What we know:
It is a single chain. The protein is α/β, with parallel strands linked by helices and about 325 residues long. It has two domains: about 1-215, P-loop containing nucleotide triphosphate hydrolases (Rossmann fold, 3-Layer(aba) Sandwich); about 225-295, ACT domain (Alpha-Beta Plaits, 2-Layer Sandwich). About 35% of the residues lie in helices and about 30% in strands. The protein has a six-stranded mixed beta sheet, with helices on both faces. Strand 7 (about 155), helix 6 (about 165-180) and strand 8 (about 185-190) form a beta-alpha-beta unit. Helix 3 (about 90-100) packs across helix 4 and helix 5 (about 135-145) packs parallel to helix 6 (about 165-180). The radius of gyration is 25 Å and the shape is elongated. The two termini are about 25 Å apart. Bound molecules: adenosine-5'-triphosphate. Adenosine-5'-triphosphate binds near residues 36, 38 and 40. Its EC number is 3.6.3.-. GO terms for molecular function: ATP binding; ATP hydrolysis activity. Keywords: ATP-binding, Hydrolase, Nucleotide-binding, Transport. Belongs to the ABC transporter superfamily.
Amino acid sequence: MIEVRNLTKKYGDHFAIQDISFSLEKGKIYGLLGPNGAGKSTTMNIMTGYIAATSGEVIIEGHDIFKEAEEAKKHIGYLPEIPPLYMDMTVWEYLFTVADLKGVPKSERKSMIGDVMEKVMLTNMKDRLIKNLSKGYKQRVGIAQTLIGNPDIIILDEPTVGLDPKQIIEIRTLIKRLGEDHTVLISSHILSEIGAVCDHVVIINKGHLVVSDSTENLEKLFKGQDILCLSAQGELEKIQNILREFPALSIADMKEAEEAETYRFQLKVQDQADYRKQLFFRFAEAGIPLLEISRAGMSLEDIFLEITEEGRA
Ligand SMILES: Nc1ncnc2c1ncn2[C@@H]1O[C@H](COP(=O)(O)OP(=O)(O)OP(=O)(O)O)[C@@H](O)[C@H]1O
């Protein structure tokens, strides 16, 4: 349905994105995830024909977004990072203008706008000036304009940014509902957002694609990687030597605690075994008190940090 092939965008000598490929299938909700500056907006702006790529292709329902822009654009509704709203219009006037610009036949405009407002729960705001709406409602108007013309694919760039927690939940619920009738692509730099809403995650970092997989697979893939938190009081070298005796444990992080000679470790457990007892007895034998030892599974948040910080998949 949408194929992104070897997309590259260069600004001067700087690659905003490099050789990105992924595809979107019908009827799923996709999350484009990456830290600030990763290249999410650039990717979306190219996919929707707002800016040209340096090289690569975007094929939407068989149409190249650059070579057959008009045909390709009919299939997509796009909400850029900064919503293109006319603040001095009412909700109704604005959606009417969008319908006009998108070439919706006059006879269909009224009912289409009515349906869209119903879908995003804006009907009771229809005569309100956009500038007088709350941020959450403004965002709904932004989403409403993507739905005019009933495109198959809805692309939303950071749709919950700047909203309060209640508005975030409302917009997420709305996105889920849109996923029933449309293929949806949303971008975010917050993993929990994507985990809560999306079936599939595409992660980019520093302009490169790192992972494209189902949310479920990603969780499974990293499930084996348990984390063990351990605080020990003693000589650092001795503590590290003991930890080295356990080949399945690797040190992911180490911090010196405020208390003298106390070190807090985060250990990655490679084989899913529970090493707490063995560690307890081994440290006791060495006369090094353990002040804390606990297990924690890897959350999607940890996976994201690991992938984006270390560039590993
Ligand atoms: N018009 C431009 N001119 C020069 N560099 C640009 C331009 N637009 C984007 N970039 C650079 O390209 C890279 C990717 O930017 P992009 O806005 O796509 O990232 P992003 O993942 O959307 O980040 P954010 O969440 O902060 O919007 C960044 O290094 C950015 O500075």
